[in-house]
Amino acid sequence: MKLLIAASGTGGHLFPAIATAEQLSRHQTPCHIEWLGVPNRLETQLVPGKYPLHTIQVEGFQGKPGLGTLKTLARLLGSVVQVRSLLQKGNFQGVFTTGGYIAAPAILAARSLGLLTVLHESNALPGKVTRLLSPWCSVVAVGFEETIQRLPRAKAVHVGTPVRDAFRLAPSALPPLQLPIPDDVPLIVVVGGSQGAVAVNRLVRECAPAWFEAGFWIVHLTGDSDPDAKSLSHPQYLALPFYDNMAALFHRATLAISRSGAGTLTELAIAHLPAILIPYPFAAEDHQTVNAAAFVRAGAAKVFQQKDLTTEMLTTEVLDLMRSPQRTEMAEAAGRLAIADSAEQLAKLIQKTVGI
Ligand SMILES: CC(=O)N[C@H]1[C@@H](OP(=O)(O)OP(=O)(O)OC[C@H]2O[C@@H](n3ccc(=O)[nH]c3=O)[C@H](O)[C@@H]2O)O[C@H](CO)[C@@H](O)[C@@H]1O
């Protein structure tokens, strides 16, 4: 089988696609995979060397309809033509996409050629492209069970969201050379999605002295756009713009303070890690709040809106939670949400749908 994977932009779109691609490559009948992305996005760092990467320019529809919308529409049509030609020349049999802007030309081009298309939607509240184009897909795999009801015209199946291989293997210890953290200390990990979260970073730095005093250590993944990322220094504090070995870090951590992107939530569940969630307030249609609500309902996390959360509130909440048996219950609840074999399920679905 020859498959085009259209996944672009953030870790939330790319890591599940890469995990699925790796799973497909393990199949007895190997699957030839090529990638469709956008120039200058994360895929240009993660994909080359693994799969041939084709890039096109795409953008989303923003704001009120007007001249800008017409230009975007014209560009979308242009990109559909480009993807059609790629699919035809390359003799691809199907398309797999993890949604977002890149999914629109990929699904439309595949559909216009009668090719089979599998879409994975990791968010509880499906994005615009998913809502609009899911009825055109052969099958839509969803990360949250509740999403099925939000896509009444699609053939939707709940498979969870695939995670990187390291999350599915026995947990490895944190490499002491990368993160020298004593074995017996309580550890808070702060993560703002694949791009970091400047507002959360600021809040955490203000709360940190009280947490250090309580004996906690902090690993702070700041992202690379925080100008103050290096402003805090303490023996119990390690700040990094990005860290790869999230599986080892989440398995070692006692509590996470996190945005509520679907990728991170899935990993928190697999690592049985309780969390304080602060949804990104500017995420499209506030979808991170809907993701977080599913974890709160399950008892796996607590959620605070950024606009309501003060330094005092977060300081106390963390101190209380780190000392409370409620954390264990939250960890168990997180574990119940985990679908560890999501990549296998999704790879099988693609194989069945596209026909290898
Ligand atoms: C701002 C925004 O709109 N983000 C969206 C984006 O994901 P975004 O990439 O922001 O967030 P996710 O939580 O889905 O994924 C982040 C991924 O990056 C990894 N990571 C993060 C930091 C780090 O140092 N190292 C590392 O490996 C995390 O472990 C995770 O796998 O797409 C997701 C899937 O549609 C959405 O749910 C998110 O709401």
From TrEMBL:
GO BP terms, alphabetized: carbohydrate metabolic process; cell division; cell wall organization; peptidoglycan biosynthetic process; regulation of cell shape
UniProt KW keywords: Cell cycle, Cell division, Cell membrane, Cell shape, Cell wall biogenesis/degradation, Glycosyltransferase, Membrane, Peptidoglycan synthesis, Transferase
Bilayer topology annotation: Peripheral membrane protein
Annotated metabolic or biological route of this protein: Cell wall biogenesis; peptidoglycan biosynthesis
Coiled coil: none
EC number(s) on file: 2.4.1.227
Subcellular location: Cell membrane
SUPFAM superfamilies: UDP-Glycosyltransferase/glycogen phosphorylase
Highest taxon in the source lineage: Bacteria
CDD domains per the UniProt record, alphabetical: GT28_MurG (cd03785)
Broad class of enzyme this protein falls into: transferase
GO cellular component labels: plasma membrane
Residues in Glycosyltransferase family 28 N-terminal domain copies: 4-141
Molecular function GO labels: undecaprenyldiphospho-muramoylpentapeptide beta-N-acetylglucosaminyltransferase activity
Start and end residues of each Glycosyl transferase family 28 C-terminal domain: 188-345
Catalytic activity: di-trans,octa-cis-undecaprenyl diphospho-N-acetyl-alpha-D-muramoyl-L-alanyl-D-glutamyl-meso-2,6-diaminopimeloyl-D-alanyl-D-alanine + UDP-N-acetyl-alpha-D-glucosamine = di-trans,octa-cis-undecaprenyl diphospho-[N-acetyl-alpha-D-glucosaminyl-(1->4)]-N-acetyl-alpha-D-muramoyl-L-alanyl-D-glutamyl-meso-2,6-diaminopimeloyl-D-alanyl-D-alanine + UDP + H(+)
Principal subcellular localization: membrane
List of residues binding UDP-N-acetyl-alpha-D-glucosamine: T10, G11, G12, N123, R164, S194, Q288
One Pfam family named in its UniProt record: Glyco_transf_28
Family under the similarity heading: Belongs to the glycosyltransferase 28 family. MurG subfamily.
Purpose of the protein: Cell wall formation. Catalyzes the transfer of a GlcNAc subunit on undecaprenyl-pyrophosphoryl-MurNAc-pentapeptide (lipid intermediate I) to form undecaprenyl-pyrophosphoryl-MurNAc-(pentapeptide)GlcNAc (lipid intermediate II).
Name of this protein: UDP-N-acetylglucosamine--N-acetylmuramyl-(pentapeptide) pyrophosphoryl-undecaprenol N-acetylglucosamine transferase
Species this chain originates from: Thermoleptolyngbya sichuanensis A183
Highest classification ranks of the organism: Bacteria, Bacillati, Cyanobacteriota, Cyanophyceae, Oculatellales
